[in-house]
Amino acid sequence: MLSSGTPPDWASVEVAIPTARLPGVSMAGFRQRVPAAVHIGMVAHPSVTVLVDLSAGLVCESHGRRSHGSVVAGLLTPDLRVGGQGAGACLQIRLAPAAAAAVLGGAAALSGQLVDFGDVFGRGAELFEHRLRAAPSWEARFAIVTEVVGRRMADRAVVDPEVAHAWRLTLASRGRRRVEGLADEVGWSRKRLWARFRSQVGISPKRAAQLVRFDHAAHLLAGSHSPATVAAAAGYVDQPHLNREARSICGLTPTAVASAPWLAIDDVAWPAVTVVRP
Questions:
Q1: CA 125/CA 34 separation, integer angstroms
Q2: pTM of this structure
């Protein structure tokens, strides 16, 4: 989902990731070491994504809705573009639906939406952002997130255990578990699982499976595998099926997905950057 405009020089980007993580939570820090105008697109990911602006320069857009500063992007937020000016920095926090429900007060209402961080985080948002901006290192920022997010996750349980388990099974199977099998596993009827899952996660179990399967395919594409090979490995009927799903989920062809930079933080998606592990 690369946008028009100045493409980022990824060799000048510092990416920091923590050595430890909370269940259902992943983090990464980004710093543009050389001042430049950056405007990129984000590939759909099976998580609710929080982007904390650390340099007062972050601008995010989705289908004409523009937001300045820290934002939250729900599952399947369409055409999400992230930009900035100068030597900016931001902290990315990705939350599984159960974690998002606890940390942000819900996940379903965020589905397909780009919203200001303070509107969903609630009380303490300004202090949380201030602490992160004032922290002297990425390691210190990750520790603050672990403290605050961990406390919220311990204090709240918004998603049914059955729904959370169905999500974990979907992830573990890379989107290949059928809804009927998930319902049997959690001891619910298909109808009940569908209704509860959609009301608490924001998308149906089938759509969740499509998103998880596509995320797996996107990483294979980023690893230079051909679309035909990826289609077979990720469980698509054929390459046209993969093409349709890529268009449906993020509006890209598989070839464009392969060159999109903003996948999960790993050596496949970020081959040319300096990765710092505190």
A1: 29
A2: 0.88
As given in the structure block, the two tokens for residue 90 are 């931001």
> Mind listing the pLDDT tens digit for each residue in 81-137?
887 766 678 899 999 999 999 999 877 888 999 999 999 998 899 999 999 999 999
Residue 22's identity, in one-letter code, is L
Give me 121's structure tokens. Answer: 């985080």
Strands (E) located in 172-231: none
Q: How many CB atoms lie within 10 A of CB 21?
A: 14
- Interatomic CA distance for residues 29 and 18, integer angstroms: 9
Rounded to whole angstroms, how far apart are CA atoms 201 and 13? 33
Please give the biggest Cα pair distance in the chain: 55
Contact partners, residue 224, CB within 8 Å, separation at least 6: 258
DSSP state of 108: G
Please provide the size of the chain in residues.
278
Three-point CA angle 146, 33, 29, nearest 5°? 15
Give dist(CA 78, CA 112) in Å, integer: 6
Nearest of 47, 3, 1, 55 to residue 30 by alpha carbon: 55
Q: How far apart are CA 277 and CA 274, in angstroms?
A: 10
Q: Between the ranges 50-59, 129-138, 256-265, where is the mean pLDDT highest?
A: 129-138
